[in-house]
Design a protein that fits this description.
The structure is a single chain. This protein folds into two domains: 4-61, Alpha-Beta Plaits (2-Layer Sandwich); 65-238, Aminopeptidase. The chain contains seven helices and twelve strands. The chain has helices at 35-42, 76-83, 95-105, 114-125, 165-179, 192-196, 204-214, and strands at residues 4-5, 26-29, 47-48, 57-59, 64-67, 88-91, 129-136, 139-149, 152-160, 184-188, 200-202, 227-228.
Length: 244
C-alpha cells in the first residue's frame, strides 16, 4: 500500500481498501476542495482532514464510526432536558455561522481553516452540505453540519456553547432525517461524545456497501429546505432511552 498524490485535473480517488493502516485510513494527498472533488470523495467513502496551511489529506478509516438513527441513545436525563424544550432548532438557516462556530470550538486547534470553510460553503450553496442550528432565544448556542449522500448523512463537525446543545442538535436531526427516509449517519472516527449517543464501529467494507446502496436513495427535496425543526419535539416520546 502506498500514499497516492491526486492529479490536479482529475477528481478520481484510489480504492478506499488501499488506504494505509498506519495512520489508519490515510489514502491520498493533494487536490483541492472544489464541490466536484468533495462530492466524488463522499460518494466513495472518503473525507478530507488536514491542518490549515498543510497539504490536503484524504481518509477512509477502517473501522468506520456510524450511527443508525433508530439505535441512538437518549438517557433519562437528556430526555427530561429535551422535554423542557429549552432550545429551538432550524435547518440550513445559518450554515456559515455553524461552520465558523465549529472551528472556534476546538481548544486543541482546528482543521476548519479558510480553505475548508470556502469549500463547504460552496458545497452548501450547491445543495449538498447542510447545517442544524440550535437557538436559545435569538442566540446561536449549538449546531452541526455535514454532507448529504442520498439516504446517508456524513457528519463533519458539531459545537455546543450551552448545556446539551450539540446532543440535542443530533437527536432532533435524527428525527427529521428519518422522517424523510434517511437511514444512516457517518461519524467517521469514533470518539466518546458520539459513542455516548449511540455511534458504533463497523468494518469499512460494510460501510462502503451501505454507502453504495444509500447513495442511490434520493430523499425528497423538501428535506433540505431551510426550515424550523422544532416540531420534531412531537416525536420525542418514541425515542429509545438508556438507563442512567
Amino acid at each position: 500500500m502506498r500514499l497516492v498524490k491526486l492529479e490536479a485535473n482529475s477528481v478520481s480517488f484510489p480504492d478506499p481498501e488501499t488506504a494505509l493502516q498506519d495512520p489508519n485510513g490515510l489514502l491520498a494527498l493533494g487536490g483541492d476542495l472544489t464541490p466536484p472533488r468533495l462530492l466524488s470523495a463522499y460518494h466513495q467513502g472518503i473525507f478530507p482532514w488536514f491542518d490549515p496551511g498543510e497539504m490536503i489529506l484524504w481518509w477512509s478509516p477502517d473501522p468506520r464510526a456510524v450511527l443508525f438513527p433508530p439505535e441512538r441513545h437518549v438517557s433519562r436525563s437528556l430526555r427530561r432536558f429535551m422535554r423542557q424544550e429549552p432550545y429551538s432548532f432550524t435547518l440550513n438557516r445559518e450554515f456559515d455561522q455553524v461552520v465558523h462556530a465549529c472551528a472556534q470550538q476546538r481548544e486543541e486547534g482546528t482543521w476548519i481553516g479558510p480553505l475548508v470553510k470556502r469549500g463547504y460553503q460552496e458545497l452548501h450553496e450547491a445543495g449538498h452540505a447542510h447545517s442544524v442550528e440550535v437557538w436559545s432565544g435569538n442566540t446561536l448556542v449549538g449546531g452541526m453540519y455535514g454532507v448529504s449522500v442520498g439516504g446517508l448523512f456524513c457528519g463533519e463537525s458539531m459545537f455546543s456553547r450551552q448545556l446539551n446543545a450539540s446532543k440535542c442538535a443530533l437527536m432532533i436531526f435524527c428525527q427529521h432525517f428519518t422522517r424523510y427516509g434517511g437511514e444512516l449517519i457517518d461519524c467517521q472516527v469514533l470518539n466518546p461524545h458520539t459513542a455516548s449517543l449511540g455511534a458504533k464501529e463497523i468494518p469499512r467494507r460494510q460501510f462502503l456497501q451501505l454507502l453504495s446502496r444509500l447513495s442511490q436513495h434520493q430523499l425528497p427535496p423538501e428535506c433540505w429546505l431551510p426550515q424550523d425543526l422544532s416540531p420534531c419535539y412531537e416525536d420525542l416520546p418514541t425515542l429509545p432511552m438508556d438507563r442512567e
